[in-house]
Amino acid sequence: MGYKCSRCKRIVEIDYQYSGIRCPYCGHRILLKERPVIVKRVKAE
Ligand SMILES: [Zn+2]
């Protein structure tokens, strides 16, 4: 599952064998869950 760092906005892959969640790039500890983008298609008829 992907997370997004709230500071540097990088996508972080969390490995759960580590006890803490932390951005490996900047060390920030607040990561936002990155949801898969669901595109709704609306047919224009
Ligand atoms: Zn970061």
Structure, explained:
With 45 residues, this protein is mostly beta strands. It has a single domain (1-40), classed as Rubrerythrin, domain 2. 0% of the residues lie in helices and 22% in strands. It is built from no helices and 3 strands. It has strands at residues 2-5, 11-13, 31-33. A 3-stranded antiparallel beta sheet has the order 2-1-3, with no helix packed on it. The protein is elongated and about 50 Å long. 7% of the residues are buried. Bound molecules: zinc ion (ZN). Zinc ion (ZN) binds at residues 5, 7-8, 10, 23, 25-26, 28. Residues 5, 7-8, 10, 23, 25-26, 28 line the site of zinc ion.
The H-level CATH homologous superfamily, spelled out, is RNA polymerase ii, chain L
As for the number of domains, it is 1
| Count of helical regions | 0
E-strand count = 3
Judging by the overall fold, what is the CATH architecture? Answer: Single Sheet
What share of residues is helical? under 10%
Give the structure's gist in a few sentences.
By secondary structure, this protein is mainly beta.
